[in-house]
Amino acid sequence: MSLFSAIGVSASGMEAQRKRAELITENLANAETTRTPDGGPYRRKDAVFTTAPAGESFAGILEASGSPVLGVRVSDVTIDDRDPEKRYLPGHPDADPEGYVAFPRIDPATEMVDLLGASRGYQANVAAISAVKDMISKSIDLFR
Question: In angstroms, what CA-CA distances link 99 with 30, 87, 89, 103, 105?
Answer without folding.
Answer: 21, 8, 6, 13, 18
